[in-house]
Amino acid sequence: MTNRQWIYAKPIEGKLATDNFKMRQTPVPTIRQGQTLVRNKVISLDPANRTYFKYQGYRPKLHVGEAMHGFGVGEVVETRDYRFKVGDIVHGDMEWADYSIINSYDRAEFFYKCTPGYSEEDLVGALGIPGLTALFGLEKLGPLRAGQTVVVAGATGACGTILGQLAKIAGCRVIGFGGGIEKCRWLVDELGFDDAVDYKGEDVAADLASKCPDGVDFFSDATGGIVTTATLPVMNKNAPWYHFGEITTYDDPANNRGILTGNGLTPELETLCDRQNLKPRFLLVFDYYCERIRAEKTLASYMKEGRLKAPKTVLEGLENLPSALVDGTFGSNRIGKLSVRIS
Ligand SMILES: NC(=O)c1ccc[n+]([C@@H]2O[C@H](COP(=O)([O-])OP(=O)(O)OC[C@H]3O[C@@H](n4cnc5c(N)ncnc54)[C@H](OP(=O)(O)O)[C@@H]3O)[C@@H](O)[C@H]2O)c1
Fold first, then answer.
1. 157 close to ligand 1 (CB < 6 Angstrom)
2. What is the pTM assigned to this prediction?
3. For the domain that residue 332 is a member of, what is the CATH number?
4. pLDDT digit string, tens, across residues 83-115
5. Ligand 1 nearest atom to the CA of residue 183, by list position
6. CA neighbours within 13 Å on the CB side: how many for 136?
């Protein structure tokens, strides 16, 4: 039996491209004591995958020659770890491959047995890292009150689609940022947002300001860039600024962490933030993973009641992983959670 595996084969020069990856065939790994062999089923494509080559974040930095990784869900085919049994569906930091190995000492926040009964795409989406990032952000930085105005950056993506709908469930007025008029219309028509702003449009700041006459009470910021600079001036004093990602910096080799390291704002915006007491507040979803099962239940119950949609774009085939990352994670036509089905 062979294992097809994508490796990070060539250092990135300029923009990430599919030829930075190369597929190799290896024998299916043999497990040792404490290890579990998993047949990958669905691999999640996340903007953060692009940072793996740049620095150590929640996982070690990736070096040329190593197998590419991504969060995913797979089925246990062989195990020498008491926690699992053959047939279990598990979530983990998988290799971009047909098979992955889980070690008993791997981080329990990443590697866990999934709750049965949910689709594998939802386990990496609305009920996985993106859904929990949305829910924890609102719970830990809120609570939201009915009638408040919430602005959602990256509203068409995996986290933003869920966060915006949760804010609607809380009775808030929700404005989302989308890339292009069609995606903005989709946010309103399909997800029930109150309004949307095209971050690729002409005067983004004026467009947002006209849609937030009472200011902004909660800013969910996953992008930085124009979305952030347009939102800060309309935020109300002391309003929470949930800054849990900064997509606009991920492809820029000179800009590693942007706003959180004090690099992303003009002096004028810094003065404004001081005056209005606006502080970017980061939260790593895994910091709250001890609450995962409770949070998953909350999200699943909203979905069951028809109050929460789980938009997704699912591509097929291991061979399509590099193009899905290169074309699919930034500004493409897809919506919601992007994943690739492997088997
Ligand atoms: N802190 C944590 O624990 C944690 C956990 C999960 C995710 N994150 C971070 O959260 C962010 C969102 O992740 P996700 O999984 O929701 O991503 P995603 O599904 O890939 O969605 C990306 C979103 O960003 C928008 N976008 C892309 N380029 C943009 C730009 N230049 N300016 C403004 N918006 C842009 C896209 O809009 P269009 O497609 O409409 O153009 C889309 O709505 C990422 O930064 C990720 O790293 C953090």
1. yes
2. 0.97
3. 3.90.180.10
4. 999 999 999 999 999 999 999 888 878 899 999
5. 40
6. 27
